[in-house]
Amino acid sequence: MAGNTVRLTMAQALVRYLTNQFIESGGERQPLFAGVFGIFGHGNVTCLAEALERVQDRLPTWRGQNEQSMALAAIAYAKAKLRRQIMIATSSIGPGATNMVTAAAVAHANRLPVLLLSGDTFTNRLPDPVLQQVEHFGNPSTTVNDSFRAVTRYWDRITHPAQILTSLPQAVATMLDPADCGPAFLGLPQDVQELAFDYPEAFFAETTWTIPRPRPSRDQVAAAAALLQTARRPLIISGGGVRYSGAGEALADFATRRGIPMAETIAGKGAVVHDHPAHVGAIGIEGTDAARALAESADVVVALGTRLQDFTTGSWTTFAPDARIIGINAARFDAMKHRAVAVVGDALEALAELDAALGEWRCDPARMAEAQRLYAEWNAMLDARQAPSNVAVPSYAQVIAAVNRAARPEDVVVTAAGGLPGETVKNWRVKRPGTFDCEFGYSCMGYEIAGGWGHAMAMAGQGTPIVLVGDGAYLMMNSDIYSSVLSGHKMIVVVCDNGGFAVINRLQTGMGGAGFNNLFTDCRVANREAPPHVDFAAHARAMGAHARHCDSLADLEAALEWAQTTDATTVLSIASDAHAWTPGGADWYVGVPEVSPREAVREARRAQEEFRRKQRLGV
After folding, report:
1. Is the pTM above the cut of 0.85?
2. Could you tell me which of 247, 255, 427, 532 has the fewest CB atoms within 10 Å of its CB?
3. What is the CATH number of the domain that holds 225?
4. 408-415: average pLDDT
5. What is the dihedral of CA 367, 368, 374, 375, to 10 degrees?
6. Are 284 and 311 in contact (CB under 8 A)?
7. pLDDT score of 291 more than 60
């Protein structure tokens, strides 16, 4: 040490900086980085791991089984913490790094923070080509880590130890920016990790961050208030940004006082409980018929904290052509979509200012009465479809309802991709705000069990994650059952076994195609009539979990009661119907062949063309 500097390797300095970052939220100060998910290899074990081992009491490192799944667990942790704490995922170079690209895309699409640290090839190139290096003949500086550029909000390759002095603060600021939030990536070449540098001691001073709450322009608020005051049939859409801003309670109060029905996106589900008087359920392709009817009749739509993905907008067919949109979002890019009256700012702050600007205005009570009538009809339909029965193979609706009844208010349901998003969004009745997580921004199969592990870490015993996963997604990524047993983070996993990728089979056959390569019985297998069956319970037991197979809904209900009493991750499997789906929701823009020898395909094409004529074209 000389003067006000301290000599450290780049890897040591990076880790020391991370351990001295804190965040204050709600009057509580805690470490910003809660831990590291790590798989070590030659690109990060000799330098970065050496630095992490020294601080394991302050920055715990958790051993994952797959780089993609541990990064997905980190994303779920950030979601559970409402983006107020961040996990780190580190990999070696080569396949370890590229395994995390999919997870980076999940974080990017969902606007969630995760810090990704991957080893990289040598900047001096003396030993080139090294193990796992992909060579680009015309561009020798390109490595596989360049693939992260498309799926991260902040990307840097550290080619000199001094560069972290400017790069790390920018990476942190990006991950905490409500408008720009997403994954940050740092490529760490092996020869740079080992280099020592005289770092200023001030760089390692404890720093306390806060989440900024940008307030909107007064002019934007005034314009939005003026438009909303003209509305006779308004509708609120509550997105994921409402949850991350902590605006759920305020929005529910606003909707009730102003008499505006409140729909939700998939990311926004859980901001309010299922039976809130202003709530009409999810909107869009996987939404309720109540929300669809209200959207189709709306003259002004208040889109709060949503990026208006096609599953929310019914591929932009759900709203009337002359409906006006008020876009309230921290991100300008999202706020101004479809010529919306943009209000750029934090959801909670913007809502408060809009509320003040509205004065005494209140929507005609007939609008809320209509919404409550439509939602009551929807819930009556759910009651009928969810009712327990003695059917040999229950529907998703019946399985989800059984899990919902067994879940405690503090338990969190976790799912993703396949048929379960639509079925859980429609059928799951939220008992307590913040207890629903469906990864559908990127619709990533494999998030489910990894996400459950991340939630279990974040919940720290205050409730249990209940993971709903299809057999296809289970087969794709299940090793974090072992991770959770190894680390002592309990979750309950319910495997719905419907014989393959059933929801894609539904789309395939619904658009006139023949069933092909989705259900196991439609695949090229040795015995198509009786393909080998996976014993999911036995498989889970082999990884150290408790497990049972359930032969009926009654078995499942008894097993769920048992699962709440076990001391470790518990897996339950049950056969589910591959062809029974909950009705409701909007249509979807998908590619259908213009020409085909199959009449069913030609008919589907005609229906798609008719559907597309209802689309708003961005104006």
Report:
1. yes
2. 532
3. 3.40.50.1220
4. 98
5. 150
6. yes
7. yes
